[in-house]
What we know:
Elements: H1 13-21, H2 27-41, E1 55-61, E2 70-75, H3 81-87, H4 111-118, E3 124-130, E4 133-139, H5 146-149, E5 152-153, H6 157-160, E6 163-164, H7 168-176, H8 188-197, E7 200-206, H9 218-227, H10 232-237, E8 239-244, E9 247-248, E10 270-273, E11 277-279, E12 285-287, E13 298-303, E14 320-324, E15 329-334, H11 335-339, E16 348-353, H12 373-397, H13 403-420, E17 434-435, E18 438-439, E19 458-460, E20 468-471, E21 476-477, H14 478-481, E22 485-487, E23 499-502, E24 508-512, E25 515-518, E26 522-533, E27 536-539, E28 543-548, E29 550-556, E30 559-563, E31 567-569, E32 571-576, E33 581-582, E34 585-586, E35 588-591, E36 599-601, E37 606-609, E38 613-621, E39 629-630, E40 635-640, E41 654-657, E42 662-663, E43 668-669, E44 679-680, H15 683-688, E45 690-693, H16 698-705, H17 711-737, H18 743-774
Parallel strand pairs: 1-8, 14-16, 20-28, 20-34, 30-40, 41-45
Antiparallel strand pairs: 1-2, 2-7, 3-4, 3-7, 4-5, 4-6, 8-9, 10-13, 11-12, 13-16, 14-15, 17-18, 19-22, 21-25, 23-26, 24-25, 26-27, 26-28, 29-32, 31-37, 32-33, 35-38, 36-37, 38-39, 38-40, 42-43, 44-45
Helix pairs in contact: 2-4, 2-9, 13-17
Amino acid sequence: MSIERDPQIKFHEWGTLNAVTLWISSHDEGIAEWLKNARRAYQPDRANVGEKHRAAVLIMRDADGPEPARIGLLDVGGATLDDVTAWSTWQDPEASRRSSHVDEEETQGNGGKAYMYRLFTGPARILGVRDGQRNCKGFEGSAASVERGTPGFVPDALSGREVPVSSVRVELERALKPYGITMEDLPTEVCCAAKERQAFTLVEGEDPIALFRGRIDHEDLVMKVLRQDQSTLAIQQLRLYAAHNGRVLNEGKPLELPPIEPYPGLEGPFVHEIPEELPLADGGVVSTTEGGSRPKGRLILCTSRENMYHAYKNLRPRWRISYRTQHQMIGSKAISELAENAPGAAFVYGTVELPALEPGYVHHGRRRPKDGPLVEALDRFITDRVRELAKRISDIRSRELDARALDEVQEENQKLDRFKNKFLPSDGEGDGGIGEGGIGSGWERARRPTDYGTIPESIELVVPDEGLRVGRDVNLHLNGILQLRVVDASGKLVRAPVAWQSSDVGVVRFTEGDLLEPRDKGEADVWAVVKVRKGKEIESGHVTVHVWVVDHVLLTPRTLEIPLGKRQQIMAEVTDDEGNRSTGVYLDWKHDADDQLIVRIGPAGYVTGNRVGRTAVTAGAGDRTAGGVWARIPVEVSVVLNPEKPERGGGFPSLLLTGRDLDPATGKIREGDPDSPALQQEPSDFAHNVWWLNLQSPEATFAFGEREENAVLWRDFHALIVMDMVVRVHMQAEYTKSGNEMPELWAMHQSRMEDHRVRIVQQMWEELEPYVRDGGGLV
C-alpha cells in the first residue's frame, strides 16, 4: 500500500491538552508531582545536588484581602534555561532526561504542568536561579483554555530568559515575599543549601481552586501529600519541610508519615523473592525478569498493630500494596482488592518491587499499574502471600472455638432465641408485647412459640425438577438450598440432627454436616437421614447432583442498580467442557469493593444491597490460579438509597451465631469478625429478619473463653446480648413505624453507633479485660 502523508501529524489542541491533564484532580496529587520533579532534578545528570543539600519546602499562604491564596514548592536545584525549555513541552517522555547514559525514572512530561494548568485560576510559574541567571516560564489565562495551556516566559522573554542576577538572596527574598516569609525564616538546612549552592527553584500557583474562603487546610493537605504513592520515593531521597502563613510547621523538622506500629508477634517485614516465572490462568507462564535480562523482584509485606481499614484517616490510605519498578512508583492497589475479605488482611500492607514492570505496565498518571499478563500473575502471587500472613494474624487474634462447646452454645442460643419471642409482638413489628403494666398488659399478647413435634416421621425437601447442577469445587450447604424440614406425622416441625449421604463420594461428598463438596465431573444421588430410634432411621427423597466442569461463564445484565435492602438476581449462563449450557448451575460469587459488605451474594446469584456504594461482581468455579474458570466480564453493581421502607423478613427475628449458623443472604456460614460489634445486623440481615451474636468480637471471645471455668459469666453475657437485641427490635419499630423518622435515618444511626462501638470497645477492652478477669489493670 502506498500513502502520501500530511506534512506533519496534527492533534486537536484543546482536546489533547484536556486529555493529558484530566487525571490531576486534587492538590495532593499535583504537589506529589512537583516533589517527584524536584527529586529527579537533584540527580547527578541534572543539578547534581549533594546529600547534605537535598531538602525542599512546601510553602502555603491563605488568601488575605485582595491577595489570593498560593501554593509553592521551593527546592535548591536551580532550574536552567534547558530545564524550563524542556518543561515547556507537553507529553515529552525525555523532559527530565539530560543524558542517555543515566538509568533513571522515565517521566511523561505532564504531571507538574497539569497541576499548574488545571488546579489554579491565577498565574502559575516555574522560577529558577542558577549560575547567576534567572529563568522563568509559566501559564496564565482562563481555566481550561488553550491559551492557559500555552507556556511562555514570565513576564516576557527579555525579563524571563537567562536574565543576569547580582544576588541570589535578593531574588529568593522577592519570590518568598508573597508568602509572608523571608529567606532566614526558612528551615535552616534549606536556607543554608540555597546560600551555599547559590541556586533555587520555585514552582508555584496563585488562587488554588476548591478552597473554602481562600483558606488552605494545611494539616490535611500535608498528610495527603505524604500518603501519595508518587511522593514516596521523593520523601525517601530528600528532606521535605512545610510552612503555612509564614510559620514553619512540624517544629521545623522534616515531614514524615507517622510510623506504623507492627502487629505484636509478627513484626516483620516479611520479604518474598518473586520467582523468575509466574503461572498464568491459562496454564502458561510469564517471565518476571524478561528472560533474565532484568533483575529479580521482591514483595515486602508489613503488619499493623491497628486495623488499617477502621483507622480511616491515618492508616486506611496506607492499606495498600504499592508497585515500584527500579526507578519509580507506578501506583497501588487496595489490599481488599487483592485479598478480598480475608480475615486478618486489614492488618497487612506492603510494596512490590519489580523492574520488569517498566515501561510496559506504567499507566498514565501512575495511579495503578496497567493490566496485563505480568500484573495478573503478580497479583495472584501477592494475594497468596497476603492471605498467608493475614491467616497468621487471624489465628493470633481469634481463639480456636472448640466444636463441642460451639454445639452446646448453639443449643443454648436456640433456647434463648425462642424465649425472647415472648417479649416481642406476634409478627416481630409494632410496639411489642410489653406494656406499662408488664408483659401483655394493654397490648396484644405475643403468640406462643412454635409447637414442635417429637417423633420424626418424614424429611421434606424442595427439589428442582432437573436436580441440582453445581460447578466443580463449588461447595454448598444443602439444608437451606433444598429448604429441608423434618416433620412428625401431623406435620409439626421436629428438631432433630440430620446427616447427609452420597451414592458416589468420588463425585460428591459431605465433609461436615450438610456441606456438599463436588469433587469431579459426573452425577451422584444425595439424601438426608434422621435417626428415629436405635436401629431405625428415615430418609429423604434422593436428589441427583450434576457436577459440571465449567468452561465459560457469561453474566447478565452488564449493570445492575439495587436499592438498599433489596435483592436482585444476576443470571449466570454456564457452558461446560462438553458444550452444554444452563443458567441453573450453582457457582461461587465474589466482588471487588474495598468494603466487602456493600453486597451479599448467594450461590444462585441473588445479590442483596447491603451498603450504599459500587462494586463489580463476578462468578465462577475453582481457584483461578489452579485452573478455575470465572466470568471475564463482571457485572457493575450500584447500591443506592432505597426511597421505600425496607421490607423486614416475616416472623420473629432470629439470633444466630457467627462461625456456626448459615447466612441466609449467602448460603454460607457467617464468619465472625473481631472488628465488628458483638451484636450486629446489616441491611441484608434486616431483609431476612436475623441478628448475629459475633463470637469473634473481643468481649464475646473473652466470655466464651471463660465458659468452662465460669459458666455464669458466659450466660450473663449471652443473656445481655439477647436483651440488647430485643430492645433494638423495639427501637426499630418505634423509630420507623410511626413515620416520625425515615427508616434509612434509623439505619444511619445504628451504623454510626456500631462504628463507634467497634472503635471504642476495642480500645477499652485492652485495659478492661484484666479488670474483668481479676480486678486489676485499671490506673
